[in-house]
User: Fold this.
Amino acid sequence: MRVTKIVALAFLLLVGRPALAQEWDRYQNLDDRFAVTAPGQPAIEKTRWKSEYSSMFPETIYRWQEGPNRYTVSVVDYSDSEAIFTANNHSKDFQAPMYWQIDILGSIQYAATQYRQKPGVKVTFDAFHYINLVTGHELQLTNPDQSRTYVGLYLHENRLYIFDATVAKNMPPPLIFQQSPEFLDENGNSIRYRTYYYNRVPEPRLGRGARGAGAPAATGGPQGAPAGGGGPIQRGQPPQQ
Assistant:
């Protein structure tokens, strides 16, 4: 949902927020293919994200600060999951190709767990969500200082997007930031799906069991898992390095 600068400012004035140091407007980033309505230009940090199976992925964090309120968009690029996972010196039990795929497929749930396990937080909302028909998950948490954190997690074209807004105690929910995310194509156009979008993992290209380029994905679950989607998935046990 796109929110214009005029609507954003009107909403902020109606809820009686303090005078703004900077105007809210639509920010877009073509490198990471997203847009969001936020207060001004972000500070940008390049870092690394440690995945469930101990792979280190490129992460870019976009940060905004408005008084006591903080807004961030974190984008984790999982597109090279196969190569990154294969390069690690995993134990024999964690060499199956399904693990680099599960790293992608379970990335939303893994990120949500990192929020749930923060000391002293109380989870007040925890459910499926979507933005522009891109499926994901939403969390709302009350922090020990009584500030509130609103999180939207989405997986689009093998990028994990974490939209995080933390507002001070007694401040209204950050509806503009929560409801404005867009996913962009290579030309910067907002993508509109006709039905719900679910991320598809890249085709295997390296190592054991790789199918030829363009071959259809196996049905029923990640490669190396039985058709029923089961298999020896040791969740929560990081690979030995």
In short: Confidence is low (pLDDT under 50) at residues 1-21, 209-241.
